Amino acid sequence: MDDERRPGSGLETLLVGLDAACGPVFDRLEKRGAELPALEGILADGASGPLESQLPPWTASAWPSLYTGTNPGKHGVFGFLDYSGYDWDVVNATDVREHALWELLADEGKSSVVVNVPVTHPPNEFDGALIPGYVAPDSPTCHPDGLLDDVREELGAYRVYPRHTGGEEASTEAKIDEYRTVTRMRGEAFRHLADRFSPEFGFVQFQTTDTVFHECPGDFAALQAVYEAVDEQVGEILDACDPDTVIVASDHGIGKYSGYDVRVNSLLRDEGYVETARGGGMPSWDVLRDEQFFDDEGGESGTDALLERVMSGLTRVGITSQRLNAVLDRFGLAEFVVAHAPKAMVRAGTERVDFSASTAYARSHIECGIRLNVDGREPDGVVPADEYEAVRAELIDRLATLETPDGKPAFDDVAPREDYFHGSEADDAVDIVLVPHDFDQFLSTQLRGETFGPPTEPYNHKRDGMVAATGAGIDSDASLAGAHLFDVAPTVLASLGLPRGDHMDGEVLDIVESAGERTYPDYDGQARETTDEQAVEERLSDLGYME
């Protein structure tokens, strides 16, 4: 690979990823008088509109769909965790079983610079440079080897995750300052690498536009500070790189939840499908907010570790988190404790799903569905293979008409997985897909006394994100009606004069002229590797995703 600057070559297409960006967020920022000249210029000069996300509309699965142009049934990533039987590992780039855009471009003689895109660690080799994003370690392997050391030497510092202080809750001011810092790191790193490698394609992603909602829910001053910091970096990239075409896209939207937590495993337990045990168990990635932050070595406060041991002791004599919850609920304290108790303490004393003994269960709210424990597929399956369809149909019928306490439907759709996923990896999807009503109900895997409860987080993911494009070859008057997450990759290819891949599930958006369709090389990339999940878990749980 030639990593020297190629005189005369320039950035043809820049893809800017804004996690969780959507129309309602920009409307809120406009009302606040936020100064976003770069982003507003792109919106004003080009075409823009909603971008429908996939199922599930969560970071770890949605970004691979965006950068491969395929559904999770083809690329293979359905959430933050990859499961093998009842065991699990945090996903990484070796779980993505389709070519990323930059790999396809390398086969066409075009180089790329990719910064901070989720689920790109460890990177494959290609012509260009890549610094991984979300779910990577804070000092990730980059491409080419030694790249991160070079970036840190040149820029002074670079890290994947915002760093807050110790094991104590950071102030909002400290969080905002750190959001600005890591946002600046993305922009500086991208500009440095674009200057060094002179790529035809650039992709820079900003995660803080999502993080701020999870860590500072309802704080619109913090939201404004984050977007203004992102806009500053986008503006400097545009000035430095002068791309011919700019595309801005998000993986999903975000907004206020006013519905209920739908505790799927509580319902399945009451219906006789879920068996339970006490303590430990598989992480559910549901939200039990614990504002702890970890350095590269990780670590937990002494107080939290002591509370975990105490809760474990109580569990051995029959006192679970749920029993404590019943007492606390009488005093109106249950939801406060769930929101603030250390996760390790709660997990140590929680009645949990006994996956190997259950007929059906929800492993993670992010998967948006239910898994059956099938004999011959799971290690201790209890559902005979010849009864699979009957059990699944029975569950679909029971859940399809479920209503919340205020009489609203719990789900917009309850369907077999093949209605949403297709491809070589589709068998790893949930067996029954649950689509929360208006994404205003929150799927939860918690085992609590009731099926329905107040939403665990006031803000969370919505189905509609956004897309905007401007520059050479972009028809700003063309319609973006029906634009889907899967359409981004084929549209990027078309902006570079290249055909859509016939393996892709998306189409070229009308804003750019199609270059036709062709067959690209089959994926034959890296063998699947395991992740150092402890360090990654701790950082991702800072956002409240993991019990």
Automatic annotation (TrEMBL):
InterPro entries: Alkaline_phosphatase_core_sf, Phosphodiest/P_Trfase. Gene3D superfamilies: Alkaline Phosphatase, subunit A (3.40.720.10). It comes from the Archaea. Pfam families: Phosphodiest. This is Alkaline phosphatase family protein. It comes from Halococcus dombrowskii.
